[in-house]
């Protein structure tokens, strides 16, 4: 995998709630801007096709299909963004990198794509607890949220 992000004789400094919150906010801004460009371009292409094919009477149906495709695309893009970035040699999404934190396994090694996928989807559990799953990081010894416990990961300040 990659080198251990923590020197051999040093204790890791775990990322707390507020640093994680800022990273999540930055990631959402990055994803929002990226989505705007991609979805806007797709929307313009579909709009142009409605005129070229003279299918304006079917616009309502086409736009409903477009919305469904965007929902699936959004789900896929967000999952691949987080799981891919966190399991890469960078060990974090762009928001996490901006605030200086990395995602590691419990033994402070780089995580696999499968672990990153488990971490991403277990965030649903953290959300279903009305946010309590996220607040766990303020009270656990390694500052882990519920999804970190599920995926056996920690966030460290690098």
Provide a descriptive summary of the structure in words:
It is a single chain. The protein has 158 residues and is mainly alpha-helical. The protein contains six helices and two strands. A two-stranded antiparallel ribbon has the order 1-2. The chain is elongated.
Quickly describe the structure.
The chain is mostly helical and 158 residues long. It is built from six helices and two strands; from the N terminus they run H-H-H-E-H-H-H-E.
Which descriptors apply to this entry?
mainly alpha, elongated
Please specify the SSE layout and strand pairing.
Elements: H1 17-52, H2 59-87, H3 94-98, E1 101-105, H4 113-128, H5 132-135, H6 146-151, E2 153-157
Antiparallel strand pairs: 1-2
Helix pairs in contact: 1-2, 2-4
Instruction: Indicate the low-confidence ranges by residue numbers.
Output: none
Number of helical segments with 4 or more residues: 6
Task: From the alpha carbons, calculate the radius of gyration and give it in angstroms.
Answer: 19 Å
Query: Distance N terminus to C terminus?
Result: 17 Å
The helix fraction, in percent, is 55-70%
How are the strands of the largest sheet arranged? Answer: 1-2
Shape: elongated
How many extended strands?
A: 2
Q: If you average the pLDDT, what whole number results? A: 90
Strand residue percentage: 5-15%
For the biggest sheet, the summary is:
2 strands, antiparallel
Structural class, from secondary structure content? mainly alpha
User: In sequence order, what are the helices and strands, one letter per element?
Assistant: HHHEHHHE
């Amino acid at each position: 995998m990659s080198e251990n992000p923590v020197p051999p004789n040093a204790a890791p400094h775990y990322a707390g709630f507020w640093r994680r919150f800022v990273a999540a906010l930055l990631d959402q801004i990055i994803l929002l801007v990226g989505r705007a460009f991609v979805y806007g371009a797709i929307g313009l292409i579909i709009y142009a096709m409605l005129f070229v094919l003279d299918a304006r009477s079917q616009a309502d149906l086409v736009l409903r299909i477009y919305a469904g495709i965007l929902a699936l695309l959004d789900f896929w893009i967000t999952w691949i963004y987080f799981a891919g970035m966190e399991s890469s040699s960078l060990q974090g999404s762009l928001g996490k990198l901006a605030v200086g934190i990395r995602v590691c396994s419990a033994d402070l090694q780089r995580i696999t794509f499968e672990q990153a996928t488990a971490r991403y989807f277990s965030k649903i559990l953290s959300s279903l607890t009305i946010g309590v799953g996220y607040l766990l990081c303020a009270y656990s010894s390694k500052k882990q949220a519920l999804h970190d416990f599920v995926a056996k990961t920690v966030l460290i300040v690098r």
